[in-house]
Write a structure and sequence with these properties.
Layout (H helix, E strand, L loop, with lengths): L4 H11 L5 H12 L2 H6 L2 H8 L1 H9 L4 H10 L4 E5 L18 E6 L8 E5 L6 H16 L3 E4 L5 H11 L7 E4 L13 H10 L1 E4 L11 H12 L2 E4 L7 H11 L3 E4 L7 H11 L3 E2 L3 H12 L10 H8 L20 H10 L4 E2 H8 L3 H13 L3 E4 L3 E4 L2
Parallel strand pairs: 3-4, 3-7, 4-5, 5-6, 7-8, 8-9
Antiparallel strand pairs: 1-2, 2-6, 10-12, 11-12
């Protein structure tokens, strides 16, 4: 807790006033200063700022038991409530249209103010999409970007896990949730939320006990976009909430990135729409870092030339670009396995088609496909189709 309990109680009371909203709250703060001054003002002065109905609501706002419960929560180890007046409140949220007056944080609130990248995408993601999200998140966290996402199933969860897998020396991850900080949705991500709180931060603007209401999740998305320097959409159908996050990012001057996919996949169409509309197509984590480097004021990497590169430079030839390491380590393949992967290509394909392309029996094909699936190189999709993940 970063402000005295009495002052924090006034902030909580202001946030709980019904019918005022974040814009009205900020208007009152701009007019009167701290919340204590707001509650000490007369009706006429309040009405001049927010109107008579809202002024009556402010004056009638009680110091009820929910405020006591929030104060008790903030007093527990690892819990924080940040107000607009706190030095630790993330300043980048002032770029969005309606920064919340309060933020409930479980974990390290300092991560909210560090350079971040949002990774978002489909809840019903493909295995390849989740693999990409995890690999990109890990690589970006290792390069110093806090991975921000929404703790949803699919791409969000994979992104958080990838950032956690980067270890304690990496930048970490922040989960922005659409419920009260004491309620995790979906419930199956409760263990993941505990891991994030221990090594990163979970954050919400909603009061304790707020259930998973549908209209709160678009509001959550604006915080995901606002906390990050850019938004990377990994997989998204047309109409996806991830496209809302991307639009909000554009409106607040953030960069938008998208990973392309198969032209046959509905979960690629949202990314392809973003790319057509100006989002930057990315294939590696370094594509994202290079685009954000100037925005963050990070220096360009210094790569010492190899002997062969120095020879090319002396001969006046263009130096070779440094090799980009793949996001997933390549495993040795025998000739027949490599031939099967080539036959599958990068679009979902059924077993009979693969067999016809390879000239193998179905039984022989299964003996090759199963190890590839276990190694994570191949995903089995609904309808008996297969798709490469590498």
């Amino acid at each position: 807790m970063t402000v005295p309990a009495d002052d924090l109680a006034d902030w909580l009371r202001l946030a709980a006033v019904p019918g005022v909203g974040t814009q009205g709250q900020r208007a009152l703060l701009a007019a009167f200063g701290l919340p204590g001054h707001i509650f000490a003002a007369g009706r006429g002065a309040l009405a001049a700022v927010v109107g008579g109905t809202a002024a009556d609501a402010v004056l009638a706002a009680p110091a009820h038991e929910d405020i006591e419960r929030a104060l008790a929560w903030a007093g527990e180890a690892g819990n924080h409530i940040l107000t607009l007046a706190d030095a630790g409140y993330p300043r980048q949220l002032f770029d969005i249209a309606d920064p919340p007056v309060l933020l409930y944080v479980k974990g390290d609130p300092a991560l909210l103010s560090r350079p971040g990248i949002a990774l978002v995408g489909a809840r019903s993601a493909t295995a390849a999409g989740e693999a990409n999200a995890g690999a990109f998140a890990r690589a970006l966290a290792e390069q110093g970007l806090v991975v921000v996402s929404g703790l949803a199933l699919g791409i969000d969860a994979a992104a958080h896990r990838g950032a956690l897998a980067a270890g304690t020396e990496a930048a970490g991850t922040v989960a922005v949730i659409g419920t009260g900080i004491d309620r995790i949705y979906p419930a199956r991500n409760a263990a993941l939320a505990r891991e994030i709180a221990a090594a990163g931060a979970v954050v919400s603007e909603f009061p304790l006990g707020t259930p998973p209401l549908q209209h709160n999740f678009p509001r959550r998305n604006r915080l995901i976009a606002g906390l990050a320097e850019g938004v990377l959409v990994v997989e998204a159908a047309l109409g996806s909430g991830s496209l809302i996050t991307a639009r909000l990012a554009t409106e607040t001057g953030r960069e938008v990135f998208a990973i392309p996919g198969s032209i046959h996949s509905p979960l690629s169409r949202g990314c392809h729409r973003l790319i057509r509309d100006g989002a930057k197509l990315v294939e590696t984590a370094e594509d994202v870092v290079e685009e954000l480097r100037g925005r963050l004021g990070w220096p360009a990497p210094v790569v010492a030339p190899t002997a062969s590169a120095r020879g090319r430079q002396r001969r006046g030839a263009e130096p070779a670009a440094p090799a980009q390491p793949p996001l997933q380590a390549a495993l040795a393949l025998d000739g027949e396995t490599a031939r099967v992967l080539d036959a599958i290509g990068h679009d979902p394909v059924d077993l009979d088609t693969i067999a016809a392309r390879c000239g193998l029996t179905v039984d022989a094909l299964y003996a090759i496909l199963l190890p590839l699936e276990l190694e994570g190189r191949l995903a089995k999709l609904p309808g008996g189709r297969f798709q490469r993940t590498t």
